[in-house]
TrEMBL record, chains A, B:
It comes from the Bacteria. Its cofactor is pyridoxal 5'-phosphate. InterPro entries: Aminotransferase_I/II_large, HTH_trans_reg/aminotransferase, PyrdxlP-dep_Trfase, PyrdxlP-dep_Trfase_major, Tscrpt_reg_HTH_GntR, WH-like_DNA-bd_sf, WH_DNA-bd_sf. SMART domains: HTH_GNTR (SM00345). Keywords: Aminotransferase, DNA-binding, Pyridoxal phosphate, Transcription, Transcription regulation, Transferase. Residues 10-78 form the HTH gntR-type domain. This is Aminotransferase class I/II-fold pyridoxal phosphate-dependent enzyme. GO terms for molecular function: DNA binding; DNA-binding transcription factor activity; pyridoxal phosphate binding; transaminase activity. The keyword Signal does not apply. It comes from Paenibacillus silvestris. In the C-terminal section; belongs to the class-I pyridoxal-phosphate-dependent aminotransferase family. Transmembrane segments: none annotated.
Length: 478, 478
């Protein structure tokens, strides 16, 4: 939100006048429309009302606005609306198109975080700064040059990164890939976008987990897909449900997040994996395996991806740097049959012409460096530490009021509230108390569930945040 | 294209067997399908036929393929096709979706460049490495730290870059913007993608220049838009044509590239600009001004954008780093009314979650550094030098066979061939001679036009390339 500069040479009222003139010229306030009141603007700009009055006087003297007593201040129609001059109806364009807006809860969360940076953030699904390998990346950047080539790169992705991923996938995830079967994308997000936009057609039926990260993405509806649910219990989905949906709705693709699922944290059991693979092979049904979390397992050997057991080439595998290193690099990857990689490379050429090569170089170096293994080990330990802190705080503050199954990996904690409180009320009261989370309904679940991302908070904020959350709950239970 | 490694420890035939097994397991060759012949594969892999025969023997012994005399080699149905096992029909998915594939000529050009890196490249629309500010960017990168924050950034774009662009737009392009009216995108390409996907609806009519870069983008058709043409002469489009199209087809938006237009190099005359602005204000019709080239003008004061004259906020302005600095940074920007910026930010959140912050930091630093002005000056001189070299070579080799109007800015040279030679023939013969260009029909023009990008070649290759091109023409005229 724009505010005038306190230590500028330009007077506050002049800054405000210029700012308003610009917004008018951009069509935000069309000719004849009513401007917000002096009082409202003074609040917004954090200035005295008299400053806004001076700014209005200035604009009036320029013929840009007109005031009539009792009917407020309007954008002049003689200056801006001289008969043949029309500003496009931008709001109609903003409402047009195929692309659905983000869910109201997610927009509310973004807005609240923008307005109050002091909120304790259990909503943003990412690592805290100290968990990201910032020193390691800084060290790599100080040792390497990045500017030998700065032209358009292969839209399939920087070749050395694809080569580094072949090694990484083989060493860490037991997936045998070739560089030609890898597509580099802007996080897993863009892999999902490309699949839903370019491989499926409007009207196609697909199956997704319930609850699931996919529900938080209007992307699926924007592509015109019909969504069918695969309920998740403590061991993941029931593979037989896929067969039922296939028979009933001819689903064309299945989207799964089998390791430390977002939001529930569950891992699909080994026994169900086997049945799942049998069923999808029987049906010739492709599965998208979205796997950003498997390497975050807190203890023991991380679960392997489904893709490592995929002998028929039925799985499109998606990985990401976001949850194991740094989400701001925007590096993700897809492993797919070459025909699919070629198709998506061709399409993305239309969308963004590929990613910047500098972060791709950094990612390739980091994966191949001696930093990567130790970074992962320490990440896993610290995530476990934060999860334990969260559980401790929840048990202290909300014992008896919540139910959960503690996750063994991932960044999130899923829990059910026993008292019956509507999502929207709880979210608003929590914001008031200074803490924010994602209501479960964003992921398609019933009301009364909450996702806490504990990975993003400082350890000392976890206890404090849960205390604030508990206060919100107690308020609403009164 | 995959090839076995000559100096690997693994025998060539083993590498080939592994490679084929993998492609089979990925569903590229479904159970029962015919493999390419031994001879064909030997050619592709650049090995002796006997090596492929050994690889096939290996695969046969594993039960992966079956050969029958006289009917070639097939993927085994007993191993891969065991009744309940099916690989998804990937080719159907690759053909699905809304997104149209790239134009055949563009795919052919990409393929030819991939196969023969020694081709003299007059096709890729970008700067040569030595014209990009590589040393300057390297110097900035050695002085600055980039890792203080590596989390998810504002999907509207890195705030300091938007602030730097406010300055840049004001100083260099006389556009008054605020950071809240700027959206950072992956080159201008993504700005165009967001506009066509999110602000317009299938069936909407839009006007584009003829010829135009837009025709090279199936993006417009993929969004279901109906395209109407605004013919370009030596002074750009005729503004009155817009009114005609509006009356006839209710066009919803106009796409223009008024400064050193791609591909023709023309500049919309000042007098037509004024009429254009009057007409679009009269109709309340929004214009997308795609302006990657205006600062490349070889001499004098660069033409200002239409947006600098836009008093009604009717223009969505798009700029890019690609043609004035480095296309591989993938940095572009859009200036738009806040409601539009908000809408597109929300939508792009679904697509890629924003750009990597490191290239955005680099771009912000470069724009604000003392390198930027001098870099632009030297770029303009060197582009003029290359254009002159091209004209000299064309006059020497093809005098009387071509017609053109020399461009005063930009990276491209548009010319008409007087002899009547079909585009496809000329392209193939040129590739044979060792030079590649873009046929004019890619931009929607009639056959017989050629776009040469001279900015990308080394000076010494310009003369050589045109000599090769002339040879191709003479061959086809025989
Ligand atoms: C399951 C899952 N998939 C994909 C994503 C997208 O992340 P990114 O694009 O940063 O890789 C997320 C982020 O929360 C996620 O939880
Ligand atoms: C007129 C025009 N617009 C947009 C683009 C896309 O370039 P980028 O996405 O690299 O900015 C090009 C590239 O050739 C172009 O010529």
């Amino acid at each position: 939100m724009w505010k005038p500069e306190r230590n500028s040479k330009k007077a506050l009222y002049e800054q405000i006048a210029d700012h308003l003139e610009q917004r008018i010229s951009y069509g935000e306030f069309p000719p004849g429309s009513l401007l917000p009141s002096e009082r409202k603007l003074a609040e917004q700009f954090e200035v005295n009302r008299s400053t806004v009055i001076s700014a209005f006087a200035e604009l009036r003297s320029l013929g840009i606005i007109e005031s009539r007593t009792g009917s407020g201040t309007r954008v002049s129609t003689s200056k801006w609306g001289a008969t043949p001059k029309h500003t496009p109806n931008w709001s109609r364009f903003a409402e047009g198109g195929n692309f659905l807006p983000n869910l109201p809860f997610l927009r509310r969360i973004r807005e609240a975080l923008g307005q109050d940076p002091s909120l304790i953030d259990f909503a943003s699904g990412e690592l805290s700064g100290d968990l990201a390998p910032t020193d390691e990346i800084a060290a790599l950047m100080s040792r390497n040059a990045y500017t030998s080539y700065l032209g358009y790169d292969n839209p399939q992705g920087f070749t050395p990164l694809r080569e580094a991923l072949v090694q990484y996938l083989s060493n860490y995830r037991r997936i045998q890939a070739t560089e030609s079967s890898i597509l580099i994308t802007s996080g897993s997000q863009q892999s999902l976008f490309l699949i839903t936009q370019c491989l499926l057609s409007p009207g196609d039926a697909v199956a997704i987990e319930d609850p699931s990260y996919c529900y938080s993405l209007p992307m699926f509806q924007s592509a015109g897909l019909r969504l069918f649910r695969l309920p998740v219990d403590n061991h993941g989905i029931q593979p037989e449900d896929i067969r039922v949906l296939y028979k009933k709705h001819r689903i064309k693709m299945v989207f799964l997040n089998p390791n430390y699922q977002n939001p529930t944290g569950t891992v699909l059991s080994v026994e169900r994996r086997k049945r799942l693979l049998d069923i999808i092979c029987e049906l010739g049904l492709p599965v998208v395996e979205d796997d950003p979390y498997s390497l975050t397992s807190y203890e023991g050997v991380p679960p392997l991806p489904l893709k490592s057991m995929d002998t028929t080439g039925s799985i499109l595998y998606i990985g990401s740097f976001s949850k194991i290193a740094a989400s701001g690099l925007r590096i993700g990857w897809m492993v797919a049959p070459r025909s699919i990689v070629e198709r998506l490379t061709d399409a993305r050429q239309q969308m963004d012409f590929g990613l910047s090569i500098i972060p791709q170089q950094i990612a390739a170096q980091f994966l191949q460096s001696s930093y990567f293994g130790p970074h992962l080990e320490s990440l896993r330990i610290q995530l476990q530490f934060k999860r334990d802190l969260l559980i401790e705080s929840l048990e202290k503050e909300l014992s008896g009021l919540i139910e959960y199954a503690a996750p063994e990996g991932g960044l999130h904690f899923w829990c059910k509230l026993i008292p019956d409180i509507p999502d929207a009320k709880l979210l608003e009261e929590s914001i008031k108390q200074g803490i924010i989370f994602v209501p479960g309904s964003v992921y398609g679940s019933d009301s009364g569930y909450v996702r806490f991302t504990f990975a993003r908070s400082k350890p000392e904020d976890i206890e404090l945040g849960i205390a604030k959350f508990a206060k919100a709950i107690r308020r609403l239970m009164e």
